[in-house]
Amino acid sequence: MKKIKIRVPATVANLVCGFDILGMAINQPYDEMEFKLLETPDIIIKHTDNFGLPEKTEENVAGVVLLKIQEHLNLKIGFEVIIHKNIKPGSGLGSSAASAAGAVFGVNALLENILSQNEMIHFAMFGEELASGVRHADNISPCLLGGITLVKSTDPIDIIPLRCPDLFVAAVHPQVEVKTSDARQILKKNILLKDAVQQWGNIAGLVAGIEKNDHALIGRSLNDVIIEPVRSILIPKFDEVKAKSLQLGALGGGISGSGPSIFMLTEKEETAQKIAEIMKSIYDEIDIESFVYVSKINPAGVEIINED
Q1: Residue 5 φ/ψ, nearest 5 degrees
Q2: I need a labelling partner for 131 at 20 to 30 A (CA). Which of 38, 54, 137, 259 fits?
Q3: 180 in catalytic set
Q4: Catalytic status, residue 307
């Protein structure tokens, strides 16, 4: 193949209690990326969006990933990448991960799948490091693999795909800025042992609930006593959004990644639609523009939509 076009899904990281270790791919929103092989070793990045992201290779999330791959494989060829970004940077819906995972997936397809799954995750994490200062994989792994993933370790890479429950996701992205780097800076450096024990129980319960398809257990486990109490202060109306969503029948939910997006899991699409409507109305009342999404969990991850 000389050209390829892919669709890259948004992701929800942490899943409330699983900070940096749990992530989920969703159908909406998504980016599209086009790749073309070049006979010269140039790496050209182009954006069609208006987000003002840098196109200089070493300053671009996708560009950094491609430079690392090019160096590792000692490639004498290059790539042109056109990014049609719909996942807004700073949304908490895995925008940087989409660019990084999309870059490694697209180039790997052009190179006839020369990289292993773990190598793809390894290189994609360099993009996350550029964006947030941390090489984490909780967005990268579900973006590449689809469904829900557990990051047991990033050194060495040990990613465990979990069962993909038949649930719906309602998400709201209020148009306020929360930078991942800032959201990490405010986190407590030390936590109480009793809080850690409670958090471990929630994480274990959530993973067990996902694997057993036990929706009630999933709902009981979507509780964060360490990260959410701190980060939620950065998100206007967070407590009201969460409370009203639960009243309407959400199993549970919370901050998507570092925010400001908020997600809720539901058993029925109708419930998710009602929650999306109330989410938007809450922000309309305080004159904050917001975008809402109702989606199923994406089981596939990045997909090829056109090749030549």
Answers
A1: -125, 135
A2: 38
A3: yes
A4: no
